[in-house]
Amino acid sequence: MAVAASTVNGFSLTPVSKADENYHRPTDLKAFDDTKAGVKGLVDAGITEIPRIFYSPPENFNSDDVSSETQIHIPVIDLEHIDKSTVDRVREASEKLGFFQLINHGIPVDVLEEMKDAVRRFHEQETESRKQYYTRDLTMPLIYNSNFDLYSAATTNWRDTFGYISAPKLHNPASLPEICRDILVDYSKRVMEVGKLLFELLSEALGLNPNYLNDIDCNEGLALVCHYYPQCPQPNLAIGTSEHTDNDFITVLLQDHIGGLQIRYENKWVDVPPVAGALVVNIGDLMQLITNDKFKSVKHRVLANKEGPRVSVAGVFSTLSFPTSKLYGPIKELLSEDNPAIYRETTVRDFSIQFRSVGLGTSTLQHFKLSEADT
Q1: If you classify domain 74-374 with CATH, what class do you get?
Q2: Residue of 362, 366, 363 whose CA lies nearest to 155
Q3: Cβ 299 vs Cβ 243: under 8 Å
């Protein structure tokens, strides 16, 4: 059904011609943000064409850019019986693709399903109920908004998000919305356990003591970032999540059955297909930094889709912007005369602030590379 009204809460729903000189992106971004209803609010209003702020660059839709090679598979690693071959597979995936999937990871399927259901419940509740949590204040117990980098990124993504930081500073669970409170607390504890195991496997894959990465507190911080991608009336013009790398140590992702996640491999986009009951793991920029490029933080994106909503839950292992004096640089045990440090030391806070200041699609790692004069 076409939209009768041209605005929703002051935000224009009328698509603007690319040639229209009156288009002023900052004004439209502010108007969209002020609705506090997100992309879901636009869909609820019945739009049939997307507003101009969501137009994605044409190069995002180049079909020649998508791999049709069937031999490229994202490894599925079974944790039921962990042995040397498990570590070898983790190492190979981390060095080559930066992505792998886990099965038999210890989180029951019914917990995974309840977590996905909770994301849908939150985003599909009455708009007025959602609005009370809409904020860009990173100190709040639950942070709900559309596009954390709305005002800094070149492209506005077709998705809404709420986030819950469960470590290192735990908010009182009573301050969380009842509609998703219990599962957020439960699921975050379970993801933390998966993370600890992954850091052990990654430590061994680096030839280090299994406790190494946990001992240097790679598992100290965890945030659950819960994405909601409403169905898009013009998925050929929008992007769900722009091409980017993650600014953490690792991400443990729960995705639903719809798909749309792709990684950049040999300059082609490759699908990361949903596997029932699996968790997707990817190497983040901080892990690439401390491993001195041994493990790869790979570019990835999420396509917009006419099917939907798509939901996903990213377990982000990082202390983000929390104050810290702890410095992270390339692990000294991995360095040698032939393999000198590529990056300078940084705090996780400074790394995170740099990432947030420029938004998705820019290289935070590049900012921390040593120059020839430093080496």
Answers
A1: mainly beta
A2: 362
A3: yes
